[in-house]
Design brief:
about 325 residues; alpha/beta; four-stranded mixed beta sheet
C-alpha cells in the first residue's frame, strides 16, 4: 500500500496562482484517495480563499483544508499545516508554484527507496507577468551569474546537495528534527536542511522531479525578495557558519567594496578611480551576459533587462546581508 501524502502550502494573497497550483495537484499521477492538501493562509485580503472554496466545490474528491496562519510567516504557516495534516509523507509546495504531474509520485518513490531524508527537484523559473522585465527576471533567476552554483535551478544529474526547493519528508522524520524554525522569516528551508545534514541525513535532488516557480514580476518586488533573503541569511549563518558558500559571500563583499571606495574616494581620488573601474567591469560583465543571452533566446529586451535584474539581485542581497550585520551589532 503506498503511503498517504499530505501536501502543505503556506500562502498569502495568491489569487493569481492558487488555482494553477490546485489544478496541478488535482492532476497528480499519485492516487488521489491517498492525497490531502492543507493550505495555511495568512488572512489573505484578495480572492484567494474564494478561489480555493470554488475549487473545493468543483473537486470534492480531493481533500483540501484551509487553516489560518495567524503569524503570517512562511515557516509558521508550514508548521501549522503540517500539524493539521496526517499523511505519512509531507510534501511542501508554495502558492506560486506548479508541480509536474508526476511530482508527488517521484518524491514518494525516492523517499521510499531511502535516497534521502529530504527529497526535491529542479525549479523551472517562469515569468511572473507578461512584460519584458518580468521575463528578464525569470531568466536572471536561473542564470549562473544570478544564482551561482545553486543546483536546484540547473542540475542535470541526481545527487546529494545542500538544499532543495520546497521539500518532501516522511512525517516521522520531520517530527524528530522539530519542523521549521519559526524565528527565521526567510532561509527557513536552508536552515532545516542544515539540521538534517548535521544529523547525517541526505538532501536528495533529482532533476527528473520538476516544478514550475513563478518569479517576481517587477524589479521592486525582486529587490524586496532578495533583500529579505540576504538579511535572514546572515541570521541563519550565525548558527551554521560552515554552510557559507562562495556565491553567498560575493554580494555583500561587492556592496561593501562599493561603499568603501565611494567614501574613501571623497578624500583620495585613487579610490574614486577604483570605484569607477569596479562599476565599469561589473556593468560590462552583465552587459555581455545580457547580449549573449538575448542572442541565444532571440529576445532583444534581455540585453538591458537581464543586467538590470541580476544587478538588483546582487545589490539587494548584499545590502540585506550587511544591514543584518549592522542590526546585530546594535542589538
Amino acid at each position: 500500500m503506498p503511503p498517504t501524502v499530505s501536501i502543505v502550502v503556506p500562502c498569502y494573497n495568491e489569487e493569481k496562482r492558487i488555482r494553477t497550483l490546485l489544478d496541478a495537484i488535482f492532476t497528480q499521477t499519485y492516487p488521489r484517495h491517498l492525497l490531502d492538501v492543507t493550505i495555511a493562509d495568512g488572512h489573505s485580503t484578495d480572492q484567494t480563499r474564494a478561489i480555493i472554496a470554488q475549487f473545493q466545490r468543483e473537486h470534492p474528491d480531493l481533500r483540501v483544508t484551509v487553516i489560518d496562519n495567524d503569524a503570517r510567516t512562511i515557516p509558521a504557516g508550514v508548521n501549522r499545516a503540517i500539524q493539521a495534516s496526517h499523511g505519512e509523507v509531507v510534501v511542501r509546495l508554495d502558492g506560486h508554484s506548479c508541480p509536474y504531474p508526476d511530482y508527488v509520485e517521484k518524491v514518494v518513490a525516492a523517499l521510499e527507496a531511502g535516497l534521502g531524508q529530504n527529497v526535491g527537484g529542479v525549479w523551472e523559473i517562469r515569468p511572473g507577468a507578461e512584460t519584458p522585465i518580468a521575463r528578464a527576471i525569470a531568466v536572471a533567476a536561473a542564470h549562473p551569474l544570478g544564482v551561482g552554483d545553486a543546483l536546484y535551478r540547473h542540475a542535470r544529474q541526481a545527487a546529494a546537495v545542500d538544499t532543495v526547493p520546497f521539500g518532501a519528508w516522511k512525517r516521522s522524520f520531520l517530527q524528530q528534527i522539530g519542523g521549521y524554525d519559526e524565528s527565521l522569516l526567510s532561509n527557513e528551508d536552508y536552515e532545516l536542511n542544515a539540521r538534517i545534514r548535521q544529523r547525517g541525513g541526505i538532501i536528495w535532488l533529482d532533476p527528473s522531479i520538476r516544478s514550475i516557480y513563478f518569479a517576481r514580476p517587477t524589479l521592486e518586488a525582486l529587490a524586496r525578495q532578495y533583500g529579505r533573503y540576504g538579511f535572514w541569511k546572515f541570521r541563519m549563518l550565525r548558527r551554521y557558519p560552515g554552510t557559507l558558500r562562495w556565491r553567498q559571500a560575493l554580494p555583500p563583499l561587492f556592496v561593501a567594496s562599493l561603499l568603501v571606495n565611494l567614501v574613501l574616494g571623497l578624500v583620495w581620488p585613487l579610490f574614486g578611480w577604483l570605484l569607477a573601474f569596479e562599476l565599469a567591469a561589473y556593468a560590462g560583465t552583465l552587459l555581455l551576459a545580457g547580449v549573449r543571452t538575448a542572442l541565444q533566446r532571440r529576445e532583444a529586451s534581455l540585453v538591458w533587462g537581464l543586467p538590470l535584474a541580476i544587478a538588483v539581485m546582487h545589490l539587494a542581497w548584499g545590502s540585506g546581508f550587511l544591514w543584518s550585520i549592522l542590526n546585530e551589532k546594535r542589538a
